[in-house]
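Subject: sequence -> structure tokens, single chain

Hey, anyone have a minute? Need the predicted structure for the following. Not urgent.
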Amino acid sequence: MPNVTPDWLCGGLAAMAHSAFVSETPVPALESLPIRLQQSASRGSALSRLLLVLPAVLALSVPLGAIAINAAGDPASLALLAERPLATAQIATGLLLWVGLFVLPAQRALSRLWNRRTVEIADGMVQVEDRTVFGSSRWSMPIDAYLGLAHHIRASLSGLTHEIVLVHADSARTVTLLSADKVTQSTFDGAKLLLGLPEVPPRMLYQSEQSRRSAHNSGVLVTAGA
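Reply:
Had a minute. Here:
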């Protein structure tokens, strides 16, 4: 049976970047080529991450903002900071750490709420266009550069989501082809036949690039029903 992964864990793993996108209705059939998929951001995953970091951002922003405003209007405070460079450096380091731990993750989670992705598979190539509030980017990859297809099951508060995932050694090039409440074995087998790719175990989504390549090169894949 495919792995069942909590939605919050998907959001916390770099290897699960594919879970940031879900299929838009109608769900693609994956029955013939070319394939063109329209996907939107996984709002549940983005919102869960935003709710985790937003309270910390707000809790620290208010007192830090008040301190900064008071210090800026107080020449004695500015002079004290100038006289104690070590203390000033420690404060600056703490602020940078706070930005890295809370502000940047909150900004990324917020921007993902409006992300869109278009996936096209034709003529032996996978072409992806990502659109965000900050712009767009495109990349392409030969279909035979992929390790295979995984049937992954993701758990969230709303229930289970079945995914057919096109797995690449580079997690940034791993692509979700289909996400739905249910994916039958015949649908999954049809996708494998259509793309000419083998089945790979869902656990490969969590492995490092080196581990994925090693497993692929050694033939450690999965057979139906394993």
